[in-house]
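tool=predict chain=A
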Amino acid sequence: MAIPDFQSVMLPFLETLQDGKERTMRELTEQLALRFKLTEEERQEHLPSGPQSLFYNRVAWAKTHLKNALLIDNPVRGKVSISKEGRKVLLQKPSSINCKFLKQFPSYLKFIGHTPDQEGEGKQETIESTQTPLELMDASFNTLRKATAEELLARLQTCSSAFFEQVVVRLLRAMGYGGVTGEASVTGKSSDGGIDGIIKEDKLGLDVVCIQAKRWDGSVGRPVIQGFVGSMDYIRAKKGVILTTSQFTKDALDYVDRIEGKKVVLIDGPQLANLMIEHNVGVNPTKLYELKEVSNDFFDEDEG
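tool=predict ok
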């Protein structure tokens, strides 16, 4: 089954604790993963923004909401157990526990910044998100990044060919190609056999990367790739990169996989835009948010 959202975890979380035992979050997460019959792949799925597993993050947020409703306790460091209020809730045999359900508890209303009066009649009911705050931030970040990538690609498709070639060379340098002592340049020739730029990764030019940068309207096919690979022989290059604002055909991708003696990398429009964002080429950072979480290592006390 799919990984449950954090609100769907709340009732099973409380039910797992109804035996009165104290459990660590790691133990609880494992038991809940078994209850939801998660596959190993689902257990290992991570948040886009960090190394924490998606399911663990949702279990942790379920804990945060239940704790602020006083349905669970922290009897000792690093462990949780059900509270008296939590037992009362389970005696009611609720079909589910979610954020709306928890609003009956004053401590929870205080946690979310509401007052009992705000939850009274006449207040327009709000829709509770099933995503954790971190997931919402990730989703917003991805939406903004996608919009930026689309705008970048649109700009690249309308700029001049000469400027596009310069952008590509600048991007590859920003990615580390050419190193400290190398150099990069645009050929500026019409009879260069399809090579638009060259990166020398050392002063003597013993290791050369050939570049082809084209703003094709349609898909780039195998003949273009073959022509580029052939032109690499003129300068005895073994490495090449072809970048386009469009995409490559399956035949072109298959051909690149079968080339012997040379390494050619194909970068399509979406990849190109994302690489520019990642390496700050053509974009400016606008705002930085630094998220922090409690360090478990910091609070590990030596026993004895």
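The first strand starts at residue 23 and ends at 24. The chain has two domains: 6-131, 146-278.
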